[in-house]
Amino acid sequence: MIESTDNSLMGLVSNFYIYVQTKVFAIQQMLLLQAQTQIMQAHMKQLQAQIESDRTSEQKLIIESLQRFQQSENIKIRDDFENRKLPILVKYIINIMVYVLENEEALEAKQYLAQIQKDPLTIIICQEQWDLLIKIIISKKVVLNIPKSELALNLMIKSLLFKDQIKNSIFKKLHQFSLNSSECIVTQVPVGSLSELLSLDHKNPEFLFKFLCDEQYLGISQCEQSLVNLFNLINKYFSSSNLIEEVISESGNKKIDPALEKFQDKYIYLLQLFQQSNKKETIDALIKGLYGGAIQIDSRDFISNSELLGVDLRQVLFLFPGLIKLENSIIDVVLQIKQKQEEQEPLKQYARLIEKIKNKCIARDDEICECKKCLCARRNRESAREAQKKKKDALEKIGPLIEEYEKLEKKVKILQDKNIQLKSILIDALQHPVVSTNIPQQIKDKIIASVNQNCNQSLGF
Hints:
The chain is mainly alpha-helical. It has 19 helices and seven strands.
C-alpha cells in the first residue's frame, strides 16, 4: 500500500517536472523570438534610416543640380523615353531629371540615374524640386526634343495644373508619405502619382479626398466648405478663358478631327452638367451620399461611398480631376494631329507635282493638240490677238480726231494771247489822262468787266 502511494507520488512529481520544463522551454522560445524580432526591427530601423538618409542626400543633390540648371538658357534635351506613352508634363519632368543627373559626377547620382532609366515613374520628388521644375518649364528655357515641342510647351503652360491657385497646392494633394528628417518633415511624391492624375485610366478618388481634406478624417462641415471652394474653382475655370475652349476655337470652321471631337463632346457634357446643377442641392446630395449617418469619414469610406453615388452626381464630384485629365488628353491629341498634318504635307506637294506633270502637253505643239492644256493655251492666245486687233482699230479711228483736236488747241492758244494783248491795250487806253478825265469811273468798270466776260466766253468754246 505504502509502496503504491510512493510510486503514484513519484509519477506526479515526474509529470509536474515535465510540465515545468515544457513551460520554461516555451518561455525561453518566446523570449528568443522577441529578441530576434527586436533585433530585426532594429536592423529595419537602421536600414530605413539609411534609405531615408540616402534619399535625402539624393534630393539635396538634385535640388542643387536643378538650381544650376535653372540659370541655363535655351537648352534642348533628348527624350529618353520616347517609346513610352506618358503625359507630356511627366515626360518633361523625368527627362529634366535624367539630364541633370547625367551631368553629375557623384556615385549616388549615377546609381539614382540607373534606377530612373529602369522605371522613370519611381522618381521621388520633394516640394522644392517640384517648385524648381515648374519654374523651369514655365520659363521655357528647356525644350524637349519631341515633334511640335514648342506647341506642346505652350499648351501645357496654359493647362489647369499651371494656374497659380493649383500649381502651388497640387503637390501637397498628391503626396503619399513623408520622411522624418532631422530638420523638418519632407513631403515627397512619386512621379507615378502625377502620371495617374493625368491619365484617363485612373479616377483618383484618393487625390480628390486629399484635395478636400488635409487630415486623415473629413468632417461634414469641412467637407461642405471644401465642396463650395471646389465648385467656385470649377466655375471660375468655365467662366474664363481655358485651354480646351482655346483649342476648340482655333479649329474654326475646319472639320474637327474625330479624336478631338470626342473630347470636345465630353467637355460640353461636363459644362452643361455643371451649369444645370443647383450647387446647394448638389452639395447636400453629396454629403448625404458620402456620409450616410456618419459625422466623419476617412479615405476608404470616401472611396467606397463615392462608388454608390448616381452617375451624374459622381461626375460632378470628380469633375475637377476630370478636367485635368481631359486637358492632358486634348494636348496629346492636338500634338498627334499637328504631327500627322506635317507628315502629310510632303505627300500633298508630291501630288501637286504629279498633277502638274500630267497636265503638261507631251506633244509640245498646242496648235494641233486637242488636250486640255493646249486647248486652253489656244484660247488664251486667240483672246490676246483679238484684244490687240481691237486696240489697233480704235487707234486708227481716233487718229484724225486727235489731229483736229491738236489744231484747235493751237488756235485757242493764239486767241488767248490776242485777247490778253487787247485787254492790256484797252486798260492802258482807259488809264490815259484825256480818256480818264472824260469818262466816269463807273463806265470804266463796266467796260473792263465786259472785256473780261467776253474773254472768258471766247476761251470757253
